[in-house]
């Protein structure tokens, strides 16, 4: 108990802050912050597995998040029959071509000695393949994108409940991580960082511009929900009764019947959106707890010990007969898969998929700030980092506004400096993150909750 | 005649823009490579440092415009750049003193320094946005074109026009002058040579009496000059927006690594490799083939290898391929 005191203290402070937001701003805001904190926590757990356990830098978190989001779209949206009829055949042909191409390249790689001719022939196959695929796909893609472009213009998905996409998202992200890991994990740390950053940009470029698959920058809106809709809730009797019960003390003060009904309606509207958010919180909490249990178990298992050994001294671990390359690949895939889950959760919560919104600052660097500030190598630290940083990221604007008002209190309201500063309040969050990261790196390089390994 | 038209077409749409864009990337890439070679970390704040320098260029340009100073046909920004450099260099030296120095003395691994540079990136980004705002700004003034497309057509009687913007000429000229000065400095002067020695082998350089503090300071000064000029030229040619500058970091990294990180000449050429491949692969060659081929063989489609949406993706793919097959870069930089 005693040794976990700082963990408990840190988490209670965090929860206290969120509750304060609930009391002073509104419960709606508090819950939406809490939900995004939970999603961020899942992302940081993924990044923490890679960085904290194994020392691998993955600056491609944005790409894996987006793939998770893509999974949510592909699983939940109903298939667009017309588009399938128009161009489905071409797309399926392309899929076959890609599979054939990969198999041929594998065959060459396996059966021929490494030589210049082999390299050139593989390059030739890839180039020829790309041209053939383009020629095959072009009419199909055009046909698909012409199908009611204002509403669909893409193939759609499988029409399954969106919750399945959390698992599928993990597989998508893990699959991409496998490919990236196979080719890039041999690179030195900072090269790996740059390579993953750029690969994630390529992923985003593809998602943004392949309209037949993702609708691109036209966005996919109105995804299915795992939670009830507010509008339906507002008309169900048990929910209205529940809200009435909760607010009975306030309602009883109002004597006028019409006024009482109006107040109740207001409460029902507010309550419905809070109820929906609570449903999401519940779902996300389950994911976070399950992942936390799994990652904790892994951390203290022989496998976790091996991972730390590899992280701390690769050569020694190698000499002890541990397959460093294989383990790195494994952990890269696992961590990225967790990030993929978070990506799917994010899209599930928003109910829309906007490829244009994936930017490295928000989805890669911010997640890294979370991991570093929270404490790399410690799952509780990583989750706490997700909470603290996301909380500050959202609340930076109000805090910044307060500070600006405080420091410029002597100035006239129309003074140009004050107006300018108030306009730039949203950017104080960057300042806060930057200074926070620099201070933590300098004075507490292991994060708020440092990694602790018990030696028995 | 058709053949001439085709050449002018390529010059106008591929060669000149790629040369300009490549020069802008080259300056940034040399900046990255210097920091990497001498301070030994990948600087993720590159794009934002460039936007910081550009911001000061714009502020000074505005000031000069407001008091009525101008350079006539040249953009006022050229006059503002030296002043901006002073601010930029002092900012960089300050950051080095308060942030990077600690880790350098502690001999932290490069990864940690890269993380710290992310912190610097956030702070710089915030400062830029708080001071000048996130919106798109143009600060070009003076004569816009050296040759207009219409004038060129009249002059030569060709169908295709060749438009050369004065910013393009300025960019290329300034880059050539700056880069030659830099190479002269690195190869001929004593300080430059000691910088290269320090980058080659730190311990050996220290043993032979090279002062590391001086080397680091000069590196930051050169970096500041490169970042400000590179950023200002990009802003003059296109426009200034903090977010684009942040994104430009990616092709700049690509250029530096493709050229061989730690090798300034490689970085310089890397900028052009990236720029040309981006533009060559995404240009629609339909019109070119219409000029060159006989009428019966004219292509139906756009004859575009990749859609322009994948412009960035091209340079990143090149980078990934280079990283995988030749991590030391095309021009054999050293892997420090």
Task: Give a written overview of the molecule.
Chain A has 2 domains: 22-79 and 156-443, no CATH class; 81-155. The two termini of chain A are 18 Å apart. With 456 residues, chain A is mainly α. The radius of gyration of chain A is 25 Å and the shape is globular. In chain A, 76% of the residues lie in helices and 0% in strands. Chain B has 336 residues and is mainly α. Chain B is 73% helix and 1% strand. Chain B is built from 13 helices and 2 strands, in the order ααααβαβαααααααα. In chain B, strands 1-2 form a two-stranded antiparallel sheet. Chain B starts with a helix and ends in an 11-residue tail after the last helix. The chains are: A mainly alpha (456), B mainly alpha (336). Chain A binds chain B through residues 57, 183-184, 187-191, 193-195, 197-199, 201-202, 205-206, 208-209, 361, 365, 368-369, 372, 421, 423-424, 427-431, 433-435, 437-438, 441-442, 445, and chain B through 41-42, 44, 99, 102, 109-112, 114-116, 118-127, 129-130, 133-134, 246, 250, 253-254, 257, 307, 309-310, 312-313, 316-317, 319-320, 323-324, 327, 335.
Cα gyration radius of chain B (Å): 21 Å
Instruction: Report the major sheet of chain B.
Output: 2 strands, antiparallel
Question: Any idea how many domains of chain A?
Answer: 2
| Anisotropy-based shape of chain A | globular
- Kindly, what is the distance between the CA atoms of the first and last residues of chain B, rounded to a whole number of angstroms? 52 Å
Number of strands of chain B: 2
